[in-house]
Specification:
The chain is built from 4 helices and no strands. With 72 residues, the chain is an all-alpha fold.
């Protein structure tokens, strides 16, 4: 695997991203910023991971929210 020094997501798992966002924002704010049902109805890391792994557009939004949270 080659190094990706310009990729802030390199080496970070989707689960780590979700755990960070839940700790930083909470499920309610995450749902306001990224409107997907797995953040609204019975939110959990497991259900969110399943949905985000199968839905590229939603994963991109979550990754963008994560990057935004690092700059706050």
């Amino acid at each position: 695997m080659s190094a990706q020094p310009n990729n802030p997501l390199h080496g970070i798992t989707l689960e780590q991203i979700l755990n960070h966002l839940v700790a930083h924002y909470g499920w309610e704010v995450m749902n306001e910023r990224v409107r997907i049902n797995c953040f609204y109805e019975n939110p959990s890391i497991k259900s969110s991971l399943k949905f985000l792994r199968a839905t590229p557009w939603a994963r991109k939004k979550v990754e963008d929210l994560y990057l935004q949270s690092l700059g706050e």
